[in-house]
Design brief:
By secondary structure, the chain is of the alpha+beta class. It is built from ten helices and eight strands. The strands form three sheets. The protein has a four-stranded antiparallel beta sheet, with no helix packed on it. A hairpin with a 7-residue loop joins strand 7 and strand 8.
């Protein structure tokens, strides 16, 4: 016996080493890191911030540089004296005299230009007023950034809830497995005692049969429970993106315990959920979108300056020019279209406000519903805990009564099974309460 005890003591450190503890905090961190939907939501935030940075440049002058050049086989401008005075008889006399005189004085009588040319120009235009589209567009982009952040928070909240539910399900099954193992140990010990008593002729064969049948039921329940634990672990590990080997699933032991249960939270005052904030942003986005669209038909004012360096007159030296200008655009023919567009966006804005009012009422109702479910689950958990304690006390008394011969073996086994079932019912209710608590705390509790 001593030799076996030494072997057991030597193997205990290796058994402990083979187990890998898994905590809820680790699962939450892995889930946040490995969930594609959360990574995509972060990319949406980056995209919204990039759009906001892009629209900020609308406040600055629009600076551009242009260059061009051309060559023509014939001059684009070719004007002679006959082109000016016409082809009448008197004009022909004047033209002949002018040609003769110009030849003597070596003065050309034809003007040719734009045979070839090139130029470089730079301009800067500063918008002073663009119908409010620049200001409202930037405000709309800011709303988009906030909305993307809120949507990320919502996805993170829902993911954490999913992970917590999966984690506590595994923990609950582990607790059931420990309870079942304890009951199995009790029944195995009882089976040995009854078998010895039967061999001595002290108890009937039916008592041994009852105990053996209970052993088989418990063994079948243990197999089912072991498979359920593995399946729950697989589901959770897939949810958080954790790699694992199927044959190593049993080595993962979830370290957090079901108890103690956190007490229910107090009702939230002026509860502001992400959904409520998102509803407000939707209304604000519709209002700003209307302003941007209507701004297209409002007057637009801008000032600018341009500088050019060009050559168009053949052999002459290139010239420079500086130009300052102002632009005013008043779209007169779009007034009717602007009025119709304003009505269309007014309808969309009112729809958003109607949806906000309705959904705000639904969110208030949801807050009360979630709080009621949390309180109800807490009270039921306390009742089932008391029932479990009563069943445990009854099982201990039944064992003493069976040893004293006051009750039958079947009655004692029934109380043992009742105690196990009462414990399992309590663990199931703890899981229900954990889910209800998580659902309420995720929305209305202070950040954890």
């Amino acid at each position: 016996m001593r030799k076996y005890l030494i072997y057991i003591l030597l193997l205990l450190p290796w058994a402990a080493f083979a187990q890998t503890p898994v905590t809820l905090a680790e699962c939450l961190a892995l889930g946040e890191e490995n969930t594609p939907a959360l990574r995509n939501a972060q990319l949406d935030i980056q995209s919204a911030k990039a759009l906001k940075s892009e629209l900020v440049w609308s406040y600055f002058p629009n600076v551009s540089v242009r260059s061009f050049g051309f060559w023509s086989r014939d001059p684009l401008l070719d004007v002679g004296l006959s082109d000016i005075i016409g082809d009448s008889r008197a004009a022909l006399i004047i033209n002949d005299g002018a040609e003769y005189l110009a030849g003597k004085l070596e003065i050309p009588t034809r003007v040719q230009a734009f045979h070839y040319g090139w130029g470089v120009a730079a301009s800067a235009i500063q918008p002073l007023f663009a119908g409010g589209r620049i200001i409202n567009g930037n405000k709309l982009a800011s709303v988009g950034v906030k909305a993307a952040e809120v949507q990320y928070d919502m996805q993170l909240r829902d993911k954490r809830r999913e992970i917590e539910e999966g984690y506590w399900q595994v923990v609950s099954l582990q607790e059931k497995s420990r309870t079942l193992a304890a009951v199995q140990a009790t029944v195995d010990s009882l089976c040995r005692t009854v078998a010895a008593a039967r061999k001595a002729g002290l108890v009937p064969e039916s008592d041994l049969t009852v105990v053996q049948l209970q052993q088989k039921r418990l063994s079948a329940a243990a197999v089912t429970l072991r498979g359920g634990i593995r399946l729950a672990k697989i589901n959770l590990f897939n949810t958080i993106g954790k790699s694992y080997a199927y044959l190593d699933l049993d080595q993962y032991v979830f370290a957090d315990a079901v108890e103690p249960l956190p007490r229910p939270l107090e009702p939230a005052e002026d509860a502001a959920s992400p959904e409520s904030a998102l509803l407000f942003m939707q209304v604000e986005a519709k209002r700003l979108e209307k302003q941007v669209q209507i701004g297209e038909f409002l007057p637009q004012v801008g000032i600018g300056a341009g500088y050019g360096y060009s050559q168009f007159q053949g052999p002459r030296d290139p010239g420079t020019s500086l130009l300052a200008f102002a632009t005013v655009k008043i779209p007169l023919t779009g007034i009717g279209q602007a009025v119709s567009r304003a009505r269309r966006y007014d309808a969309a804005l009112q729809k958003a406000r109607n949806d906000q009012a309705y959904n705000e009422a639904q969110l208030a109702l949801l807050e009360r519903k979630l709080h009621l479910e949390m309180d109800t689950a807490w009270e039921q958990a306390q009742i089932l805990r008391e029932a479990w304690q009563v069943a445990e006390d009854g099982s201990r008394r039944s064992r003493a009564d069976w040893k004293a011969g006051r009750i039958s073996l079947a009655d004692y086994l029934r109380t043992t099974v009742d105690a196990r079932q009462a414990h399992e019912a309590y663990l199931d209710q703890c899981l229900v309460y954990r889910r209800a608590y998580s659902a309420y705390a995720a929305r209305y509790a202070a950040p954890r």
